[in-house]
């Protein structure tokens, strides 16, 4: 029986959901799983609740953060690239030590380390830093253990802007963005965006690239969730548009603000999720906070974290339309999966992965990035579609849900683990 070490250094947003479902999937496939995360007790309790029959081959341990993560000065915009590189290196070093400690304690040798999100470990690290570690005299690779992981954001859809740094990354092999994955210890890369598979594979010189589904937690909606009940009552029969999850300008907060001011009376607008103040400029944040103070009758605000997935699902269920008009976001988004699961049409940005999927599966309407007028036009078209049972667009919600299901995740993991 193979032993898989599952790793994530970050615990917020999508991270807990992905980590727990990865653990459950690997256990269901018959592997022993050693889980390393910032919240080992939470993970243990979740596994005990959702798949207790596998507890005899599941182990959960903490993963400490490096000291550099506590230095605020380095986290400023000026030093961000240096900080991310040093933080990534420090996390690899701590992880190596932690795995060796746990392997000795359990008397087990891991067959593979799988990263639930490689961004936390500096997925941009170059060849000289990672594979021929210039910080070590013996020039050994930083992480001499078989590994793989999910690269959420392979920066390949957007051409790099010209600068000395970008020029170097583009032109010189030893700095190219995927060089760390050329390590002989890296067995394969998992990605979410099926549209860039061939480009990524060419960068990896033929190394396996496995497309993972952008799945979501399919827990039944918590019908007793107070917030979703309040939304339904305040909407008073109006059709509900929801912006759910992290609330910032990049996810369309200001677009929804403008839509609420200009839309017809039969629409109601919901802002629900953590307010990411760092995702606004000072001017944008002041404008948004002033808007909240006005408490418009056609809006509902719940600007704190949605506690769990069943409550998140309750909010999706109460909506009639889900907004996904991201700004400058060339990656995958499981907001589409949530919407398709509950058969809710979306308004989404036209370009990149999200736009391609919406148009391929007719999940709603796509608009030019930042175009409020097009959003309002799409909203009115959806009002007609809701009344006629989607006669015009005929969305393939079920097809999209199957493609991005947890069952499909099992298939993807089986394919990836064939290379171990």
The helix count comes to 15
CATH third-level topology of the largest domain = Rossmann fold
Q: Which strand order spans the largest sheet, edge to edge or round the barrel?
A: 3-2-1-4-5-6-7
Order of helices and strands: EHEHEHEHEHEHEHEHEHEHEHEHEHHH
Distance between the termini: 12 Å
Number-wise, the strands total 13
Which residue ranges are poorly predicted, with pLDDT under 50 across at least 5 consecutive positions?
133-139, 162-175
Radius of gyration: 22 Å
The assembly state of the depicted protein chains is single chain
- Name the beta content range: 5-15%
What is the general shape?
globular
CATH architecture of the largest domain: 3-Layer(aba) Sandwich
Structural class: alpha/beta
Major beta-sheet overview: 7 strands, parallel
Protein name: Glycosyltransferase family 4 protein
Explain what this protein looks like in three dimensions.
The strands form 2 sheets. This protein has a 7-stranded parallel beta sheet, sandwiched between helices. A 6-stranded parallel beta sheet has the order 10-9-8-11-12-13, sandwiched between helices. Helix 9 links the parallel strand 9 (267-272) and strand 10 (299-302). The protein is 40% helix and 15% strand. It starts with a strand and ends with a helix. The model is unreliable at 133-139 and 162-175 (pLDDT under 50). By secondary structure, it is α/β, with parallel strands linked by helices. Helix 7 (226-235) packs parallel to helix 10. It has 2 domains: 3-215 and 405-417, 3-Layer(aba) Sandwich (Rossmann fold); 226-403, Glycogen Phosphorylase B (Rossmann fold). The radius of gyration is 22 Å and the shape is globular.
